[in-house]
Amino acid sequence: MKKDFDNLADIQNLPDDRAIPLKRVGIKNINYPIVVLDREKGRQHTIATINMFVNLPQQFKGTHMSRFVEILNEYRSEINVRTFFNILSTMKKRLEAQEAHLEIEFPYFLEKSAPVTGTRGLVEYGCGLYGTFDEKLKMSIMAKVPVTTVCPCSKEISDYGAHNQRGMVKVICEFNEFIWLEDIIEIVEQNSSSPVFSVLKRPDEKYVTERGYEHPLFVEDLVRDIYQDLKKIPEITSFSVEAENFESIHNHSAYAYTSWRR
Fold first, then answer.
1. Mean pLDDT, residues 22-49 taken together
2. Per the CB 3.0–4.6 Å rule, which of 128, 134, 150, 237 could disulfide with 105?
3. Between residues 15 and 189, the one the model is more confident about
4. Is the torsion defined by CA of 15, 20, 23, 29 positive or negative?
5. Domain boundaries defined on the chain
6. Contact of 127 with 181, CB cutoff 8 Å
7. 3-state secondary structure the chain
8. How far is it, in rounded angstroms, from Cα 121 to Cα 119?
């Protein structure tokens, strides 16, 4: 017996008499396989955590949550900064909204060679793409980059050695033209005492240890140096930089943050 689905009640479309518009409604924390742009290999498959929102005018009771997932499924084969406008535009049109918001965070892997032996291994970076489309498109890119730092004070006051630690730098950049995640990652790593590698042989460990000792940095130095290099990228219109050092001889982290707008 064929069912008449057209006659099913659509509660979301019922009017609401409380006269309260909502800034964002939608779906949050959905894990989904996507394909993103990779500067070296062209494309990279990964698993993203995704938030999708639109505004809801005061006269509507609710939005259609299933449409968000339908749109996500349509674009899953290539979600990146080049397709964000299309996704957001589709969200606005299909959900009859004035604003659309898309937030995507995902692990991104780069193959890196050890500095001396050239031994290759994958390093994971936490990355994200954020977009808002109302009257115009606003796009941001995010990268979390693991680094190591050597304490300048420890090096100065000690008869030998200096304490060092791993840290995490988070950069969020708003831009008006395409930029690669790899460009942001490289700026952060070049300004650290030493990058983090997944595979190091003894000659590599010697190099990394000595390089760090020759390039000591406070967390404040790290943020300021990254700031200077990010400002040189013409495509970036604003950014924020924060760094946290997971101190090896203290029971607290060291932290610094700043931001800039062109």
1. 92
2. 128
3. 189
4. negative
5. 18-261
6. yes
7. CCCCHHHCCCHHHCECCCCCCEEEEEEEEEEEEEEEEECCCEEEEEEEEEEEEEEECCCECCCCHHHHHHHHHHHCCCCCCCCHHHHHHHHHHHCCCCCEEEEEEEEEEEEEECCCCCCEEEEEEEEEEEEEECCCEEEEEEEEEEEEEECHHHHHHCCCCCCEEEEEEEEEEEECCCCCHHHHHHHHHHCCCEECCCCCCHHHHHHHHHHHHHCCCCHHHHHHHHHHHHCCCCCEEEEEEEEEECCCCCCCCEEEEEEEEC
8. 7
Categorize the per-residue pLDDT at 21 as very low, low, confident or very high, splitting at 50, 70 and 90.
confident
Q: What type of residue is 253? A: S
What sign does the dihedral 80-114-254-151 (CA atoms) show? Answer: negative
pTM: 0.88
What percent of the chain lies above the pLDDT cut of 70? Answer: 93
Domain 18-261 has CATH 3.10.270.10: yes
The span from the CA of 153 to the CA of 53, in Å, is 47
CA 111 – CA 40 distance, rounded (Å) = 10
